[in-house]
Amino acid sequence: LLSCSQVAGIKGVFLSNKVVENQVKTYITYNKGRDWRLLQAPATDLQGNKVYCEQPYCSLHLHLHVSENPYTSGNIVSKDSAPGIIIASGVVGPELTNANVSIFITSDAGNTWREVFQEEYSVFFLNQGGSLVAIRHTPLPIRHIWLSFDEGRNWDKYSFTSSPLYVDGVLGEPGEDTLIMTIFGHFSHRSEWQLVKIDFRSIFQQRCTSDDYLTWQLHNEGEVCIMGMKRIFQKLKANVRCVKARDQYISQMSDSCLCTEADFECDYGFERQIDGTCAPAFWFVHSATSRDCIAGDSFLNTTGYHRALSNNCTEGNLLKYSPRRQKCPSQAPKGLQLFTNEGTLVATLGKNVTFLVFLEEGLGSMTSITVDFGDGTAISYVNISSIDDGVKHIYSKVGIYQVSATANNALGFERIVLYLHVSCQLEQVQLSAPSVVIKNKAVNLTTVLQPSDVGTVTYYWWFDNKTEPVVTLSGAMPFTFSKEGTHTVTVQASVGNTVHQDQKRVSVYDYFRSHVLAFSSNLDELNPGVSEWREDIARVVKNCMVQVTGISEDQLLVTVLPGLPTTAEIFIVPEKRPSDRAMDEKWAHLDQLSQVLLSALNQDLIQFTLKPGVQVNVYATRLSPAPLVDSSDSGHSGTAVIMLVSVVLMGLAAFVIYKFKRKIPGMNTYTAEQPDKEQEVIPSVTSIAVPNPEGDKLTALDHVDVQLDSKSRGV
């Protein structure tokens, strides 16, 4: 269906252009589209020559464009004041084309057509449809109009201007009985608009009387019962030049017809067959028409037909094709459906969930519906209509609940189940991962949720820049890093419509040493429990160790762990520059650095001032009494003696520094107890001997005081 146009003045009559076998053809219906037929071509052309056109290979095809411009005529025109008259442009042939277009007119609502112009003209109604005015549709200037008083059978030529006019449009004066028309245009492309008013009143001598009218009956190829009615209209006789009164053009008589099969359309779920009858479509379930029927009541059962809208036929076959009242059948429950009103299987803890229950068959006063919410609560209804608005329920705990609905009567039962995920709002996810790991050795990555119990959680794990995540339902995941370097681990926790993310950086080495550190208890009182504070403390501790031990900062990594009491972990990693030494020598070097670090910790040489009056000591959780080097190795006995002497001297130096140390302002941090006062973190630094990476010779470091600055961070 490409386009459709309703014929004004006659209900139920439409013209339509359809594509049939790749050809556009024009069809007409007299019963609102139930039946369509091709248009009969004129018997003769404008010159009176016989037209040879046999359906279905040849017929009349019309352009059905209706003008949106009120000042121009469209391709098809009809008026309520002139029922039965249709004027349109079109062609005669196998299909609709834009070549050799002529103007055609019908006076009997599309049964017969006449060719009135072999060029395109704009046609307007005058005197409420009693006369027709035609203006040639051309880009050239014109000076004539055509006037017809017999529905286009004959035309008189009139001159409306002395000079040819480029016509832009036509305007009729307001009012139903107007006989004045205004043509506007311009004499040349450079001239201003010209208005030419034409007064036709001098042509019409008098008011129309009943003797000036004749009657005609609407029909469809001889069938006078259309839409269940016989309709007779009045129209002016040919060549009568009188002025129509306002109420005369609507004069019509009608009488109802007996109902026949032609007055009925196929009902929902039925399709028209080749023999004209209506049969159920393949997808239609006829028993569904009674699914809302309650046993003991009655319902209207379709016969496959329904009377067309606006059809006014009476009696006859009306009862044969009308729906018939039948008693509702008693049957077992069937077609039970259960779902939430939002159509999802996710609910929020503490909020109402509305469950909707539908039953296609088996409704009745003896059919009960039971809804079990899966949390130990159930509710039953005898009449399903009482729960049309749904069943509401609130869950008090998160989890996955098996919700079921059961329909039961004396003839049987049916049960349906859905699984509802009840969750609460996820506020935060924290990823826990070791800062340093061994290459090709599995480590466990874990998460902590706030709140801890939120229901079903889906975890998405990304490693470095991989585009595809690893999806798990567990908050813990083992993983093995196969390459050295710094890697990024990102985890997302998804609960319902909420997603939160955390990210950690993990350093991977072939080998390393680590120790757990503890702090003096006064640090716990000022621990705000935020990651920024832990990062600042870790940086200060690392700088202290670098200054005291002389170990390269690239070989030390410090991580302050969350929770109380405050603890940390120190990692001693290989140096960045490549080394040709054997693995045993590399391990031995890390062991030496580890012993130097433990010695400094055991002697309380790693300490800092958190704020004025608060001195924090850092020490190993297990004080190691082992010598700095292995005494069983005679090759290093001299070195061991020197290191032992150095330890004694450093102990004395530490005591002197402790008595006479200078207060140097340092890094500012924040605590939960004193949010408005900045903390000063001042490291106290003492030098000790550190093994040289290139050999076992000890390098002595002078005593230094170092001020460490840090940026203030908000907690």
Automatic annotation (TrEMBL):
What InterPro entries is this protein classified in? Ig-like_fold, PKD_dom, PKD_dom_sf, Sortilin_C, Sortilin_N, VPS10, VPS10-sortilin
Query: PROSITE patterns per the record?
Result: PKD (PS50093)
Q: Name one GO biological process term.
A: post-Golgi vesicle-mediated transport
- Domain of life, per lineage: Eukaryota
Q: What is this protein called?
A: VPS10 domain-containing receptor SorCS1-like
The segment(s) forming the PKD domain are: 356-412
Q: Which residues cross the membrane?
A: 640-658
A Pfam family matched in the record:
Sortilin-Vps10
Looking at the UniProt record for this protein, which Gene Ontology cellular component terms does it annotate, in alphabetical order?
Answer: Golgi apparatus; membrane
Q: Where in the cell is it found?
A: Membrane
Presence of keyword Nuclease = no
Principal location? membrane
Tell me the SUPFAM superfamilies matching this sequence: Oligoxyloglucan reducing end-specific cellobiohydrolase, PKD domain
Q: How does it sit in the membrane?
A: Single-pass type I membrane protein
What keyword terms does UniProt attach to this protein?
Answer: Glycoprotein, Membrane, Repeat, Transmembrane, Transmembrane helix
The text of the family note is:
Belongs to the VPS10-related sortilin family. SORCS subfamily.
| Entry keyword annotation includes Transmembrane | yes
CDD domains, per the entry: PKD
